[in-house]
Design goal:
This protein has 1244 residues and is α+β, with helices and mostly antiparallel strands. It has 44 helices and 33 strands. The longest helix is centred in the C-terminal third of the chain and has 41 residues, at 1122-1162.
Amino acid sequence: MSAAYQYHEPNAPDSPRDDQDSDLDLDLEELDPVTSINPRASPAVRPSREKSRVGQERAGRIPLRNLRHGGGSRGYGRLRKNLNAQDEDLEGLLNAEEEGAKPDSAGSSGTGNDDTPLLSSRFKRGPPVHQSTFSRLGSSLTRLPGFRSSSPQHADPQIDAGAEGDHSLTSTRTVSVGLPRSSRFPPNTVSNAKYTPVSFLPRTLYNEFSFFFNMYFLLVALSQIIPALRIGYISTYVVPLAFVLAITLGKEALDDIARRRRDAEANSEGYTVLKFEDIANGSKAKDKAARQSQSKRSKGKGRKLSNRGVRPTDIEEEERATRSDGQKSPTSIFRDTVTKSRDLKVEDVLKLGKDQRVPADVIILKSYTNDMPTAEHFGNTHSNSPQREESNLLDTDAPAAPEAGEGLQAGFQPSTLKNMTTSDDPSSGGEAFIRTDQLDGETDWKLRLASPLTQSLDVREYTRLRITAGKPDKEVNEFVGTMELLPRTFQTYDALTAATTEGFSSVDIPQTDNPASKFAPASNSSSLTIDNTAWANTVLASSSTVLAVVVYTGPQTRQALSTSPSRSKTGLLENEINSLTKILCFLTLTLSFVLVALEGFESKDGRKWYVAVMRFLILFSTIVPISLRVNLDMGKSVYAWFIEKDQGIPGTVVRTSTIPEDLGRVEYLLSDKTGTLTQNEMELKKIHVGTVSYANEAMDEVSTYVRQGIAVQPLGSEASATTLITPSSAANNFSTSGTRTRREIGVRVLSLVLALALCHNVTPTTEEVDGQSITTYQASSPDEIAIVRWTEAVGLRLLHRDRKTLTLQSVDTGRIVVRVQILNVFPFTSDSKRMGVVVRFLNRSSENFSGDQGDRTDGEICFFQKGADTVMTSIVASNDWLDEETANMAREGLRTLVVGRKRLSPQQYQSFSSDYTQASLSFQGRDASMASVVANHLERDLELLGVTGVEDKLQKDVKPSLELLRNAGIKIWMLTGDKPETARCVAVSARLVSRNQSIHTITKLKRKDLALDAISLLHSQPNSCLLIDGESLQLFLTHHQDAFIEMAVRLPAVIACRCSPTQKADVARLIKTHTRKRICCIGDGGNDVSMIQAADVGVGIVGKEGRQASLAADFSITAFSHLTKLLVWHGRNSYKRSAKLAQFVIHRGLLISVCQTVFSIAAHFEPIALYRDWLLVGYATLYTMTPVFSLVLDRDVDEGLATLYPELYKELTEGRSLSYRTFFVWLAVSVYQGCAIQGLSQLL
């Protein structure tokens, strides 16, 4: 066994084994305790070391030769001389160890130079220095760092520099991946609560006393402290006020506690976090225990090296290890832990799976599919197969290292290139799709990429990453940052360290067995863009696992910064009642002055006239009834109970019980599109091939054509088993069947289906669900997924797709029928509005694509393109039916796509390819040059194959609900983050826009001088619908706000697309400020929270992806159709009942005040109470509670009638149930009844 470790240098000095000096106190165990562990004493550690030591580089060790032969040719026996002669030298050595950062310090191994001497030059020369220093070291048991241990961990200057301002909104931040931070960032919590324990009382009391009548009664109660104004017991004034405040504050507290409980549910969601630990720190405890154990054994056996017999060749092995070029040991170890969302911190590394919500703003580090090889197959240091590790080291056929954009520096030779992508194509990067509809409302999936620097990096090296990110920002489509891979702190293999790493690294995360990529470059950096991010509240859509590091948490996330803070909402009815109480107070003051004036403003019984006025004010305080708020609040609680118990709208939750009356006063409804009006589920409903269209049951005929076109005859021959379908061979399959017209239709249908099956960016993935393999599709657009699913339904399934090839399978027979090579892909953009692909067809399935595919001359080459009719009309060949059919589909609310094809000869493609390559190399105008080449070579006179119509499925009963709301006089605005074309189609299909209603479109408006002209046409078309994009809307809001909103509020419908969450909230506030009408906002996503909170009435729908909108809303429903009953029925009842209740309570107070006035007149204008103390309190509460509170059960029409005639709702918006007219009518009734009651009592 020793032979494996021995290495002899020709002129090596004598080993200390031959030195029998009994005075030797230098113990190698103290300098390097791990390397000298006795295998007999520690059998568990030695096998682990033997197993894992192969390929571990010992670059950080310092050669023992520098120590043992530092004094030239002198023997070891003289080390005891001059023991106490050089104390300052020992102190200098120990200080050098502690400082560590000095280049010449003994403990500094950061340079990685194996030949660095242990001591600096001033310690190296002269016998007394070496002898005295190391004798003192040996005798005092003072230790240097172990030669196999890691170098001291130095503070990262980037961390220290950014620690002060990392929590600030005005500074950038440096994120050390996986490492704990000393600076504090905000907690990662979702909070929809209105109050904190500290702010609850101040805010609620301020809100309560902002109402005039509460302040009025507070002043009345305080007046009883003055003896001259005291009438009855003080408690009769204080207790009712305290009771009213207690009821109101208690209800607010219960509502806020309920919000906190719902927030706690969201904040308690568990996420898998990778916890990293430095190897040296991770094994610290075991190192210490091992050293103590060995020290005790060494003391018992004697400390002479010659008596050990364990490491006979330590010097030779050390020198051999320092020259080793094997793999470096990992920087850290990690383990999986489940952490609650609220406990996530900046720099935590998350492991996210499909359909999992992203809890914070993260940077994607790695993306891999779940069926990839795990860590035990990728050179894991815990592998039980030493042969596997050795074979990795001896692999001499490794390909060259990737170029500098792949995260590897030149000079590294990886042993293998593993596929770390979501496809089988090694050329692709770490890809993942996310859904952002809860963030920005866009329905298209977004492609996100891991940085090449981290995609190929071993997970255990993530602690070397430093990310510099900008300050927290609310721009969801912008991000600028950098990522740096710091140089390694050279660290070699440690047997005790290996023991501590067992069971830590997760085995389900792929590691690469490429040493160059594993512990990759000494230093490298990469830029970060929006493509490398995933913001909070987005959802991972692809079938992959993503590792991501948290960079922003809690209130600093994009989602939170785009969300308005919660505010206390006050109903319109309460504002109106507040105005009426001011009138009542003025009447009270007037009446008091009149009574004192009739007496002549004379002092009576030593009482000044102004004291009499104040006493009359207190006596008439019942005119402003303190019990009004109590009765209204209790009535609102009953209304909320009725709403939640209504079986017609199950699942409805009232989260803010202070504004149910406003449900009956809504005049503007602002609605989100995705998830609110639509299900975000696309379905291809119709195709048209020129002479005939297919929809619904007629799709069976399409399936028949497809089966006939992809059939191969004879089916049983060996050649037919490998024969593939091409456009030419498919046309031949129809040559012998049916009439000529039927053959032509069959060829057209199959050509269209084949084009739709090939022209897309969809990737199939296989998942295990309940033990069954299920194929799902992932793409950036749900439209493309709907089309691919339709092609599968008619008989042509997408089997495989990567960046180079695409394979189609017959659904009926299960055989591969089409296989193509993807030569070029032209992706869809908002400017081009089309997507194209150039493919080459294979004739047989046994053929492979190899070599330079551009030089092949066999196989048909076709260019397929699909896009919007507005751009495709000029690209396809002339025809007489395209415009008519696209217009018909658009009127049906379908999203139309025009599909075309062009056959290319090899010479034509070669000419295009050379020109396209040349254009792609230009530095100026590259995109325009490439687009010009495509237009000149490909996009000319395409064969028109057909038109497709895709429907975005609407929510249940959306059409009748919108129609009912329009008939009720509610103006509906649709605010969405989606594309203008999509918004238009949904507006038409949902009947938000009627068939004959014109749509005035304003998009991409950049000049403010043209803005007013753009809306001037609406003056002559007041019944038109306005469609405007976010860019143009922002221009109007900035420069022509009043002109725009004055025109927009008159229109029956407005569609705003490409709106940010902030713009949605701004529009809601602008309408509310300009019109002073009640605004209702409804949405289901996190991007709708700001709009919901800015509205007078916020309604949230419990969506598929989350409940953030529902939690932040005043009312939570489960479907859009429930909104009609909530407004038309419950809104009506709540408003009508509260209006009657408020006026009746005012009438009750006026009645007793009129009686008091009559009594005071009869008593010669003396301010004497007719009813006092608890009798008056009982009258206002207990005695008259039942008849007053019974009004909360009142109804003026039946539910069926209110729904059948939604026009009845218009009366509510006019506020006729509680107005100045009705108030003065009740005032007259109160005066009449009070005079009659008290006057007759006085007379009788």
